[in-house]
Amino acid sequence: MKKIFNPFLMIVISLSLACFAAVDAANAKDIRKPVYAGSFYPDTPEELTAIIKQLVNQVKPIHVDRPPHSFLKALIIPHAGYIYSGWTAAHISLVLKENQFGRVIVMGPDHRIGFQGGAISDVSAYETPLGRIPMNKGVVRLCQNKYLFRAIPVSDRLEHSVEVVLPYLQYFLKKFEIVPVVLGRGRDLAEKVTAALDPLLDQTTLFVASSDLSHYLPYQEAVAKDRETIEMILNLKANELIKRENAACGKIPILVVINMARRHNWHPVLLHYSNSGDTAGDRSRVVGYTAIAFYGGLSMKNRMDSLQSLNEEQGQILVKLARQTIEERLDKRSIKVDPDTMMDSAFKDNRGTFVTLTINKQLRGCIGNLDSKDSIMDGIERNAINAAFRDPRFPPLKADELDRVDIEVSILTEPQPLEYRDSKDLLSKLRVNVDGVILRKGSASATFLPQVWEQLPQPEKFLSHLCTKAGLPADTWRKGNLDILTYQVQCFEEEK
User: What are the extents of the domains in the chain?
Assistant: First the structure.
């Protein structure tokens, strides 16, 4: 007998996100079978294809304002029942096409178990009514980090956040391999997962964060809260998002995408927003949904301009090199960098670098070079000395201060001129928490690293302080006669 897709059953189960016992085991032999087919979405290929096609037909064609010469790198997609979030999820049709990606890394949140770290299914494929999706070999690499990733069979049997978005991807991409990761809890989990996933990034890989937004607020309150959350995502404000209550059930997957965006200069573009009150739910208690695309530009093609060139392990080597260099000047020898690790060819790339010293989160020295005349290794050694002993704003660092110093190193992309018409246009083009800014007028010049946005998140104040740093009146930027260049950084904080 043909199974009938029951909308009422979908309403009861998918909106409330209630846990239920699946009739069939999720992990049958070596295949992760669908658990939520027939509830969150139809359980036959004909009905499933039909509902996705119907949802896509409801999407109004719009121009996606992506940066020139850029490529899709990541998506945020909702994972509720299709009658609720499908309208928003279908907006990925604006940016996806057949065979666009060979590998998709899908990150969803744990709703039901409460485990630490990440869960990766110990199977060879995921199955939906639209067919099987083979596991990518990248899973093997991730599972080598057994303290961060492991198989959790009970999560396979109960979690919906990865499964529910897969049919959308199958419908648009057709054939691809998957790296499914369900993320639980853990201190600095987003940062650890970002570092683990970063080596998998290439031109054929798409990152997907599966997440809904606020849950069970009245309609107007939900719209206001979700709009604020979306603005945080679009401005890559990870520190604000992580503190925000009832912002998104998939906060950790979203934070991983934001971290990747900041590392690799991805530009987010809002595709759609809605909530269950717009589709099939009661407006007294709604769940919010968004679809956001992230684009990476030419920097992804050129290793010289790419923030992908260093991983977390390499970054920590450079931080240790900076500390060792300062210690040697102070005749201390607590840190010794293995000379073999410094033979890494990546450290021979010519890049701009900065070294920043802080004590109790207060600046104690910061010196760097914007040009790429020196290798990364030479630049870190020279700027470590300059930041510690030659920053004119501070006295030379003393030996008894060294144990209290925290060190951060920044690796820069090549600065690029920013064309703008007037001060309003300039404000609209600066990307908070992403762009480092160089300001020049005649012989006057100054720069702020992207990290300064944390203290000066408003572009007007950011530019005013930068003008003052350059020795210019604070409102000089409003007159539109400055040369502005922007760059991005990959920064590494010292692990203690």
Answer: 7-301, 304-413, 416-489
Burial call 190-201: b when 16+ CB within 10 Å, e when fewer:
bebbbbbbbebb
Share of the chain above pLDDT 90, in %: 68
The CATH architecture annotation of domain 7-301 reads: 3-Layer(aba) Sandwich (3.40)
Closest CA to 411 of 355, 352, 347: 352
Nearest to 494 by CA among 311, 315, 354: 315
Percentage of the chain with pLDDT > 70? Answer: 91
- Residue 300's pLDDT band, with cuts at 50, 70 and 90, is very low
C-alpha dist (Å) from residue 206 to 76, 179, 262, 372: 11, 10, 16, 31
What is the pTM assigned to this prediction?
A: 0.59
Measured in Å, how far apart are the chain's first and last C-alpha atoms? 63
Q: What is the pLDDT of residues 209-246, one digit of tens each?
A: 999 999 999 999 999 999 999 999 999 999 899 999 99
Query: What CATH code would you report for 304-413?
Result: 3.30.700.20
Q: What is the structure's pLDDT at 11?
A: 39
Band of residue 376 on the pLDDT scale cut at 50, 70, 90: very high
Length of the chain: 496
What is the rounded (10 degree) CA torsion for 156, 84, 249, 146? Answer: 20
d(CA 469, CA 473): 9
Beta strands in 297-404 (DSSP E): 353-359, 362-369
Instruction: Decide the pairing of beta strands 149-150 and 353-359.
Output: unpaired
Per-position b or e across 115-130, b if 16+ CB within 10 A of its CB: bebbbbbbbebbbbbb
